[in-house]
Amino acid sequence: MSRTVSSWILSSARNGVVLQGKGRLYSICIPNRNKIKWKLFFSKTRLYPAGSSSLDNVFSLKAFRHTSTEEEHFSFQLSPSQINDILRAGELSHKILTFNGKNANSVLRFESNQLASNTPIEDRRSAATCLQTKGMMFGVFDGHAGSACAQAVSDRLLHYIAVSLMSRQTLEELELAVECMKPVLPILQWHKHPNDVEYREITSQYFENLRVYWQHLLDLDTEPGLSLEEAMICAFKRLDSDISLEVQAPQENELMRNVALQVAFSGATACVAHIDGVHLHVANTGDCRAILGVHEEDGTWSTLPLTRDHNAFDEFEIRRLKREHPGSEEKTLFVNDRLLGILMPSRAFGDVQLKWSKELQHSVLENSCDVEDLNIYQYVPPNYHTPPYLTAEPEVTYHKLRSKDKFLVIASDGLWEMLSNEKVVKLVAGHLSELNVQKPQLAFEKPVNLGYMHSLLLQRKNKGIALLDQNIATHLIRHAIGSNEYGEVDQEKLAAMLTLPEDLARMYRDDITVTVVYFNSETIENYYRNN
């Protein structure tokens, strides 16, 4: 079926309004006294942003694609069990083991989940315990222009950070083991979902480049080594450099050559947390986000942001880019709120089209045979004069954990487009209170009004929803795509959002990946008591 001649017709079961048009479907919400009407408009240039507040009142239940020759019908009806099966498919949870009934780790447990909008999903996630150094690491990676870069970064970045933190002695032992062809001590203990993608065919190549990196660290001959902030920055920049160099190096293996091309010419943002005792470091490149949920002494909950979104809406990023490029480019650095009119985040891995010279791009693609089959094309944006315009260098935030810091949320922008920081903390806190049979008083709760009272009635009606999801990440995703104007999950909206056809879903929601890390307050309190 040709999509170029197709049109979408959606009908609302609630108000019977039929919305139709030709071309690519976009939507806008138009308030009309006491009800919301939806109007569809069609554009070849502008995508109405997923997660806009205007999407909060979608109740579409039926859709069919109409063409000049046939109709294709879609059902938006899902049973509660089918909804749960879809939402829970990506669940991952891990509880830290205790010894003699005690857990010396400041991490109590973590819970994670993801929901695809793109096919295949372009988000990735990682979680691992450091075996040769101290601490645990958690990462969320948001890919664009494909999943290849996010996949590579999720597989490799935590290793680069772990190696950056190793003592000289440990690095020497690693190098000696490789030289003598002896087994190498494992660097990380991964905590993976059974369905997490792995490309074992290229692991050996990645290991060789990791080895070159630790050899470089040995050549630096610095003691006592890098600080944690330095290690994270160095690891991010080195991995991005390796991604760039790997695609330039001659490759006899066709698979390796094609993977290197796809990784370099796609992109990924990254947010990684390293937790060692009470020491929390968060390194962020792009527009993933990390926040802390803080339980104040008066029983209220507050939010502590640990990252800034690196994009055209951040004044620091705008000033940074202006410093790095001539004044003549000041008005062309950001066009339509995108870097050079192309990319929303202003920091990312890969995306060599915004880092390399025109000549280098041409040279690499000219010498590659399968670029069209891989959907890779040279595109030089207007006003491309002084590359690189994009960097993978992260911004690192340090926070010393307190007993009132209860959980950390790391998520891709698909979540934050739908839910505010405060709403996320409120939902996690409420979920905790359900588990603890204790309802918290929230600092940012609205004054009581009719809408709020209606919300409480809906809470009673849907009493089971919070307990429905044992995994808090699932609970957040459920609310992100299914919440109504009162902040409660509307089952009809949820069903509609989960059954949108592939070429329509991305207009209403992005891939969503969430990891929530719960802290062990007792361990944190013991640290301060003993120190």
From TrEMBL:
Keywords: Hydrolase, Metal-binding, Protein phosphatase
InterPro entries: PP2C (IPR015655), PP2C_BS (IPR000222), PPM-type-like_dom_sf (IPR036457), PPM-type_phosphatase-like_dom (IPR001932)
GO terms, molecular function: [pyruvate dehydrogenase (acetyl-transferring)]-phosphatase activity; metal ion binding
Pfam families given in the database record: PP2C
GO cellular component, one term: mitochondrion
Segments forming domain PPM-type phosphatase: 107-519
Transmembrane spans: none
Superkingdom of the organism of origin: Eukaryota
Gene3D superfamilies: PPM-type phosphatase domain
Family assignment from sequence similarity: Belongs to the PP2C family.
Descriptive protein name: PDP2 phosphatase
Chain's gene name: Pdp2
